[in-house]
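Self-study notes.
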Amino acid sequence: MDFKRLNIITILLLLFTFLSCTGQKPEYEITCTETGCSGTYTGPEFDRSKPAGKKDIAHRFSNHMATSVGDELKTLYKQKIYVQVNLEKISMTTKDKNGIGNVVYTLEIPFVSVKKPCDCYTAFDHRGGWDHKILESTVRNVFRNKKNLQLVEKNTPEGLQEFWVQYQHMDYQSGCK
């Protein structure tokens, strides 16, 4: 019995050591204020040990940013600070994308103030990815049931395409026409 337990412990230690030494841990930081959200991801582009659809870990930074922006829009709305994302001024850059190392992915999502609660937006999302193109019509179809949808397409020279989307969240702006 002790020999089996020793083997299990040895295997677990080896597995832990292997997993902790495989690649640099991805890191990102996002900061939001009344004027917008910004952040940077630094880390691996892909996790080749994952199945298709789960490999693109650098692109997940877009998910984190979209969530942070949406949360900030809702927080400001509750405080009666009415803003919307300035879609045209979104800045999206990538550096050192080469498929094998770390990439630096930077986003700046600026807000502009508006006077009325029905002129602002309380939801934010995205669709896109690395090295493949999606059509605007596909994105519009995904968000077809969203109120007062606005979107913009942004691309980096290194092959990242994003459609950034804002709309009025029904839980907050159901009274808006």
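Second protein, same conventions, sequence then structure:
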Amino acid sequence: MSKKTTTSPALPVIALKNIRAYAWLNLRLSLVFAMLAMLICLFSGYNLALLGQREEILKDASSGNVFVYQGSAEPAGKNYEIFRSYIQKSKDTYVRVLFGEALLSRIAKQQGEGVLSPSVSHFALRLGDRTYTAAGTPFYVLDRNSILEADRIEMQARDLGEPVLGRLPEQAGEVVLAEPYLALLGLRAEDVMGKEVELYIKGEEVPLTAGVVCGCLTQGYFQLTGHLGAKAFDRPSVLLHESDPAFKAIPYRIYLYEPEEWVTHVENREVLTYGYRLRGGDLLGDIYMLEGVRMLANNLYTVIGGGLAAGLFVMILLMVEKYVRIFARQSGILLAFGMRRSKLFALLFLQLLFLCVLALPVSAVVTVAGYVVIGLAVKLLAQVTLAISAVQLVRLLAIGAAAVFAAALLCFLLALPRLMRRSVKEFFTTEAVN
């Protein structure tokens, strides 16, 4: 007659039965895990979204992070030193421009009026045997160096294409005409590309400059942050090579500085008093507001989040105490039936691991819901739209999962020493608490 052998249930089965036997306590502990994960995820997600919003604003407005200084001589002296104390590192460019008294006096001489700034109405463009004129907007002729790397970065970030259709002038005798200027004349890029043009001051017989049109400054360039307004030199009508003779006849320069970082609202006000203008100065208010919201969020999280985290930790300690009492009584029975202590401790860890698994979907739901609510509140109060990509959301949930498992591990490490010191008899005499 064969001897029948019995096998004890597997650890996962015992763990699930124990969780079910004390469902309410286990549910509460699982919810504490979920709330801890939500607290960490919400703070991380909120800061990620605000940082992302700030980076998006800065990237989509890089052409605005350019300081402009205009004058007939290179900036120097005390004002320049003070400017440099705020802008220590930058990419510096000087640009030749047809401006100043030499140009304005020639316009006034031919057209019999005082001129403060050149306008499209003061110039004529000859294409073939026809002369084109228009009226209205400011008119500036700059050299090709006025197209900055900051302009290209913003155009790429906003999918606006390239600044120039065709290419920039590579030598004297080549010209780039801006599409808005061509539109005022009733022309399009295809009407002038590859053709020779002459630019005149109205009333003069000798052209101011002449050359073959090698490219057109696109409409997208004028949609950039640094070129939206009708401010001086920000909206060029014509680009020439820096060696063009016109610049020698009318010497004038503007200086462009591309800082590595944006200045603050206060620093910009200070710099303005020394003659330097930031093209995207209007954006500093939005950047300042976002930084303020983020700092407020950090302060609130430090105070409120820290208090909540401390409360959750105290709750975990209290629940671990109850959990040890319940588990100790069950452990005495299991030890009496021959279970090894190492296996007993593995059972405890497995139970806590199951509670983590139960907490994960709850933490994911409350995290997403909390983020949506906070996002709506921020949009309503600060007019800031918070956005998180799918990849970032997955990372946040991964952080939440890590927080849940860390909390479970903490519970295990707190409970383990108490259980290791007990004898089998002490396990049986431990009172169970519901």
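Instructor comment on the second fold: The first strand starts at residue 67 and ends at 71.
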